[in-house]
Write a structure and sequence with these properties.
By secondary structure, the chain is α+β, with helices and mostly antiparallel strands. Helix content is 28%, strand content 34%. The structure holds the ligand C=C(O[C@H]1C=CC=C(C(=O)O)[C@@H]1O)C(=O)O. Keywords: Isomerase.
Length: 415
């Protein structure tokens, strides 16, 4: 665990008279973001930072944030979830092995239900010097990541085989794609384009991991908990074909089984913490520009008493992650098969990403439809996409699904 903390200075929060375009405020090096439909949080500067890994990574992060929250609590005239000091977080897919990053920005600008505010820690310059986002990156060169398409299809076929042997019911297999541009990639341009094209997604950026995720792992507001579980995907089509594909997804026994396992994994993990928990019996459709998903919005109320009643947001995130939307069923066998077949380190892809405030409120999505900007080459990035594999999955169809999912970030890169 490494932590840096220059945060023991005054925290001030003021309401802003005008509602700023949050993503337009970000400085040239990108900063931090969690924005959907123009609302959410952006931040920049670093008042404190934690990098943590190991079997107790999230517990250590929770203790670090509890301690810091005590130092950072301050009068907050806005008083809504996200106002005051916050930490942005990007957790490794496997927090025991990978590095999770928590950043407390010096400046946060937020907007919620039309109310805008700015929180500053210490005395940083209030707004960055504005420069326009950079131009299109010119020519893009793509290269296979860990597995070429044929090898990845072979991995899917092997997974289907293992599922047929009754070893497990579902595993999510992902692949990566490398991209290099002629000029450095501009995170602000990517975030702008992602949020324009994917208004129903959360456009996030934490420590070089950028994306627009449609999946909300867990939101905590007071004791109210909510989640949007996704699993089961169909491509988009033109005209009547699009409606046919939507109806086929809703009626697909394979996709519904894949979806039910993801909902079940979240519900089972949350149940012990909740007095009430509601998961609709039927999934709905979430339609995005590139794909359509089966979706279930789960809501619950956290218990008031006992050890589980006092669990904080990071304890809850640790309890629910990884769901079967990104790992599989049963999770231990699925994680072992992912390690065996994927041939890559997921890093923070498919891990929880979001923010938490000093009151214990916050939102965590799953880091999907994203790319990790290269720390060594500002013109390069690594894109990720994965698919749930169940009995009856067809490797060629799953490969096509990863291509449709990559297309979300590719559209932001291109043009
Ligand atoms: C693992 C990913 O998507 C998950 C979320 C929605 C639908 C999924 C699916 O249909 O396979 C995946 O479970 C990804 O986009 O990389």
């Amino acid at each position: 665990m490494t932590s840096r903390n220059t945060a023991a200075s005054a925290v001030t929060t003021v309401e802003l008279p005008d509602s700023p375009d949050l993503l337009r405020l970000l400085p040239a090096d990108g900063g931090l973001s969690w924005v959907r439909r123009g609302e959410g949080l952006v931040g920049w500067g670093e008042a404190a930072r934690l990098e943590v890994s190991g079997p107790r990574a999230l517990a250590e992060a929770a203790a670090w944030w509890d301690d810091l929250s005590g130092q950072l609590s301050a009068p907050d005239p806005v008083g809504v979830p996200g106002s005051g000091a916050v930490a942005f977080a990007s957790v490794a897919f496997d927090p025991a092995a990978g590095t999770s990053v928590f950043v407390v920005p010096e400046v946060v600008v937020g907007r919620r239900d039309g109310v805008a505010w700015m929180t500053r820690i210490g005395d940083p310059p209030p707004l960055p010097v504005r420069t326009e986002p950079g131009a299109a990156p010119g020519r893009l060169r793509y290269a296979d990541g860990a597995l070429d398409p044929a090898s990845w299809c072979a991995a899917v076929a092997a997974a289907v085989h293992r599922i047929g042997d009754d070893e497990l019911a579902k595993v999510v297999l992902a692949r990566d794609l490398l991209v290099t541009a002629d000029v450095p990639l501009d995170p602000r341009r990517l975030l702008d384009r992602l949020s324009d094209r994917f208004p129903d997604c959360w456009t996030f950026a934490v420590d070089g991991l950028l994306g627009a995720t449609p999946e909300l792992l867990l939101r905590r507001t007071g004791r109210e908990l909510s989640s949007r579980v996704l699993a089961g995907t169909a491509p988009r089509g033109a005209g009547a074909e699009d409606q046919r594909l939507a109806a086929a997804l809703l009626g697909s026994a394979k996709d519904r089984a894949e979806h039910a396992l993801a909902v079940d994994s979240l519900v089972r993990a949350l149940e012990p913490y909740c007095g009430e928990l509601d998961a609709p019996a039927e999934p709905s459709l979430l339609t995005l520009a590139n794909v359509r998903h089966l979706a279930t919005d789960v809501t619950g109320t956290q218990r008031r008493s006992g050890r589980r009643g006092s669990a904080g947001l990071l304890d809850l995130v640790a309890a629910v992650h990884p769901t079967a939307a990104v790992c599989g069923t049963p999770p231990d066998r699925a994680a072992a098969l992912i390690a065996e077949l994927e041939g890559m380190d997921r890093g923070r892809y498919a891990g929880p990403v979001g923010w938490l405030d000093t009151r214990g409120d916050g939102e965590f999505g799953l880091a999907l439809r994203c790319a990790q900007l290269s720390p060594d080459d500002p013109a390069s990035a690594r894109l990720f996409a994965g698919c749930g594999i169940v009995a009856g999955s067809d490797p060629a169809a799953e490969l096509a699904e990863t291509q449709s999912k990559f297309a979300a970030f590719q559209a932001a890169l291109e043009g």
